[in-house]
Write a structure and sequence with these properties.
Blueprint (H helix, E strand, L loop, with lengths): L6 E3 L4 H22 L2 H11 L4 H4 L1 H42 L1 H7 L2 H28 L6 H27 L3 H8 L4 H12 L3 H20 L4 E3 L5 H6 L10 H30 L4 H4 L1 H20 L6 H21 L2 H16 L1 H10 L6 H10 L3 H15 L9 H13 L7
Antiparallel strand pairs: 1-2
Helix pairs in contact: 1-6, 1-7, 1-10, 2-7, 2-9, 2-12, 4-6, 4-10, 4-18, 4-19, 5-6, 6-7, 6-18, 7-14, 7-17, 12-14, 12-16, 12-17, 12-18, 12-19, 12-20, 14-16, 15-16, 15-17, 15-20
């Protein structure tokens, strides 16, 4: 491939490429299924474990901080195992994290839930570090955003199905339960909360089983290995004097951009159910807003697939998305009720094309530094760990709506990276 930062061993036929994309698509479906249920777990565990807003958003912290902690180790793992075996290992680790929900539910111990989420995030870190550069490298760079958009659709369909299903199970009659708890004595209250906590056991046992089956299928698949330690002549010459990943400012700015993007995406996705409740919607009904958000993201991905790069570059698409993020955030703060929640859901449209655009822009020209660069970008996902609890703190001390002001400067920096930051090469 011309101007590629990596090679496929052996070279792929069109059929092989399609088969590989289908396998990676299945992995992105799993990413979405596991990640987007946090919007359900936050209000669910807030009730079951008797938490305030800040404490409940530690769900997002525990899950996404694993990307920061395990970002660099994931590069070591992939260097030792290769991409295919690394994906298999990541799925197995995720299954272990899902199974930890069983003792967490039986003992109603919030710390165990958080540990299970951290372990799931650890497995996802390895999977993301392998699959994102893989889908970027498997075809021409200029159409990478299109391929990642297809993966995004798989991700969001998985997220929509899992959040709707789990929301139906975990938050069924939750508002009625909250009302009943107020009039119960300690013994009755404990029994009611224990029963609520145990609702999570069956679905997460199923999740663990699916992850293990998929791990076996990936292990037995014909997914080819990719080589990122070799560079073509053009990139090798450009990187002759490069001795450290820190010598790629467009990558380092990309890490910060990804940090902010993931922060606002997770914040909007994980808060929308709870925010809907503050706007007068019952919790078990507010779960539909997560589906609205994911649907708007799918629309954004479809637009990206059709328009990038034929009608608009991924750089211009990212600029437009950032501007939409600012507009929808301000409108959500300025309106109320269904309209306000709908604008939070529409942030899915603004966010949809951001990962597909940021990732290939940030790893462009890294050559032999691709693995470590990818791992640093994966560490940027820690934005999903830090910004949601900060939102929760603001919501506790201000209010849930005004706390969304935190999104505006984040989207403005994303616009800067799309317009200028990605061009800074030295």
């Amino acid at each position: 491939m011309a101007n590629s930062t990596a090679s496929i061993k052996p070279m792929l036929t069109k059929t092989d490429t399609t088969r590989s994309i289908l396998i990676i698509g299945a992995l992105f479906f799993i990413f979405g299924s596991v990640t987007w249920v946090n919007s359900i777990l936050i209000p669910y565990l807030k009730i079951a474990c008797e938490l305030n807003n800040f404490e409940s958003y530690l769900v997002a912290f525990a899950f996404f901080i694993s990307y920061f902690v395990m970002g660099i180790p994931s590069a070591w793992v992939l260097k030792a195992t290769g991409y295919k075996k690394g994906m298999t290992l990541g799925l197995v680790i995720m299954a272990v994290g899902a199974l930890l929900f069983i003792p967490a539910a039986l003992s109603r111990t919030y710390g165990l839930f958080l540990l299970g989420l951290f372990i799931q995030g650890t497995g996802l870190t390895i999977l993301q570090a392998a699959s994102n550069p893989y889908i970027t490298i498997i075809g021409p760079r200029e159409s990478a955003a299109k391929r990642i958009s297809i993966m995004g659709i798989c991700n969001k369909v998985g997220g929509a199905l899992s959040s709707f299903t789990l929301g139906t199970i975990l938050l069924l009659n939750s508002d009625v339960i909250v009302d009943r708890l107020r009039s119960m004595d300690l013994v009755q209250k404990t029994a009611e909360l224990n029963a609520l906590a145990e609702r999570v056991i069956m679905p997460y046992t199923f999740v663990a089983a699916v992850l293990l089956i998929l791990a076996l299928l990936v292990h037995l698949s014909s997914l080819p290995e990719i080589e990122t330690d070799q560079e073509d002549e053009t990139i090798a010459v450009a990187n002759t004097k490069k001795t450290s990943i820190l010598q790629f400012p467009h990558l380092m700015l990309g890490v910060l951009t990804l940090f902010l993007y993931v922060g606002v995406e997770v914040m909007s996705g994980d808060t929308i159910v709870s925010y809907g409740a503050t706007q007068g919607f019952a919790l078990d009904k507010a779960t539909i807003f997560t589906t609205y958000m994911l649907a708007s993201m799918v629309v954004g991905y479809l637009i990206g697939i059709v328009t990038i790069p034929k009608y608009i570059s991924q750089e211009k698409a990212l600029q437009v998305s950032a501007i939409l993020g600012v507009i929808f955030s301000v409108l959500a703060i300025s309106t109320s009720g269904f309209t306000s929640v709908l604008f939070i859901a529409l942030l899915g449209l603004a966010n949809s094309i951001m990962w597909p655009a940021i990732f290939p822009m940030a790893i462009a020209g890294l050559g032999r530094f691709t693995k470590i660069g990818s791992s640093l970008l994966i560490m940027g996902i820690a934005g999903g760990a830090l910004l949601p609890p900060l939102y929760g703190l603001l919501a506790d001390n201000w209010n849930a709506q005004q706390a969304y002001w935190i999104m505006v400067p984040c989207y403005l920096f994303i616009w800067f990276y799309a317009a200028k930051g990605h061009k800074i090469k030295s």
